[in-house]
Amino acid sequence: MSEPLHILGGGSLGLLWAARFARAGIDCRLILRTPEAAARWRAEHHQLVLEQGNRLQSYSVPAETAEAGEPISRLIVATKAWAVAEALEGIAPRLHAGSQLLLLQNGLGSQQAASERFADLPVLYASVTDGAWKRDNNHVVWAGSGPTQVGDPQQRPQPGWLSMLDQAGVDWQWQPDILSVLWMKLAVNCAINPLTVLHDCPNGDVLRHAADDFIPLVQELQALLASQGVAVGAAELEQRIRGVIQATAANSSSMRQDVQAGRRTEIDFILGHAWRSARSAGLLTPVLDSLYHRLQTHLHQSGLPLN
Ligand code: KPL
């Protein structure tokens, strides 16, 4: 019997990944933040409901807290970016020399911090484009499927255990330059997410609200990407962002969903990371700065954390 796969985080992404592994008959365990959350899960008889279109499927997935004790060999971290450091600290006593980590976070910054903290372990990063939300504590809606890219920032070869992603039917690819992929995604998120919050609109409407700023913003983001070694022309980046806006026109961005639900956003790992990186690289980014500061003001007025 192979060792179980552990998924840290019972948010929409953690549930979506757990459901797909359970569907494939892979032994996976959810690690929840509090004993109360684990007790609620037990009260649902460990049943995880996956809704896709008009199909509802239920899977049995055991849940536990970080303190459960059993050593962890393969850990998929599916928390929000701002929760990674604390969640990993809680689980650290269960990790060992052979443990492998896969991080699914949005933005950048949380991944590098985890790599530094667990410098002796392989820490893989993923860029996930599925859309999912929780209808209930143990019920996840898979609203849109998209490709996932996985890679090792230290460019070690692909580890064998990732074949479980194939078994689970995840649409994924090994990506030798995962940092570039994550930087591109961060640039797209910088151009879309804050505007959806500031104008309280779906992704498809952002350009109506930011027509004049759009091209200068794309140029700033392109210079930022170049400073990080990501070679993409401004026209190509503009096309990429427009493509995502079109493809997700009816969606509410993850940041807008967080604000509407009164949840802490990932601002610090998206705009904050971009802003700090631009400063370190000595770039002038007036449009990005203004977007960041307007978003911070908006969050402050909504009583939400600024980081
Ligand atoms: O990744 C996204 C997000 O909402 O965080 C986009 C691409 C904007 C899709 O909604």
UniProtKB/TrEMBL annotation:
Residues 6-153 form the Ketopantoate reductase N-terminal domain. Pathway: Cofactor biosynthesis; (R)-pantothenate biosynthesis; (R)-pantoate from 3-methyl-2-oxobutanoate: step 2/2. Keywords: NADP, Oxidoreductase, Pantothenate biosynthesis. Residues 177-296 form the Ketopantoate reductase C-terminal domain. The keyword Membrane does not apply. Its EC number is 1.1.1.169. Pfam families: ApbA, ApbA_C. Catalyzes the NADPH-dependent reduction of ketopantoate into pantoic acid. This is 2-dehydropantoate 2-reductase. It comes from Halopseudomonas pertucinogena.
